[in-house]
Amino acid sequence: MLNNQNTLQRKLKHSALAIGFSTCQIVFAYDPLDCLKDISKVDPGIITGLAVKLCSGAYSPEPVKCYGKVGEVDKGIIRGIAIDLCSGSVDADQTIDCYVKAGNEKLNRGLSTTLCGVKKSEK
């Protein structure tokens, strides 16, 4: 009887824990509209079309983080190339590290972006 009681208590704890985690996911969901708000803070002068291109399908803040960091490692990068590099990024640090390494290997910005950015589907 005591063993059954302990098993029931463990199951209840695990259920409560699972419910707690699922609740957190709902509360902290990130979507492309959040991305648009974030990019307007990082780059207040960005035009809407470029912001939408960066944030399309962004369900994490990584594209905005990437966009903010790429200007730090490449002061001469233009917005369009930065957006091509960062849109779709799921790991800003990894994307930027790849871009820097590609530049060190003497690849130009365009080739570095093609190599390190997320492959976009062709329409």
Mean pLDDT: 86
Order of helices and strands: HHHHHHH
**Secondary structural class:** mainly alpha
Characterize the main sheet: none
What is the helix tally?
Answer: 7
Number of strands: 0
Radius of gyration: 21 Å
Number of domains: 2
How far apart, in Å, are the first and last alpha carbons?
64 Å
Oligomer: single chain
Q: Which stretches of 5+ consecutive residues score pLDDT under 50?
A: 16-25
Please state the overall shape, judged from the principal axes of the Cα atoms: globular
| Share of β-strand residues | under 5%
Topology:
Elements (H helix, E strand, L loop, with lengths): L1 H26 L4 H11 L5 H8 L6 H12 L5 H8 L5 H13 L4 H8 L7
Helix pairs in contact: 2-3, 2-4, 3-5, 4-5, 4-6, 5-7, 6-7
Structure, briefly:
With 123 residues, the chain is mainly α. The protein has helices at 2-27, 32-42, 48-55, 62-73, 79-86, 92-104, 109-116.
Characterization of the model:
About 8% of the residues have low confidence. The protein is mainly alpha-helical. The chain contains 7 helices and no strands. The protein has 2 domains: 29 residues; 85 residues, no CATH class. The chain is globular, with a radius of gyration of 21 Å.
Give keywords:
70% helix; 123 residues; 2 domains; globular; single chain
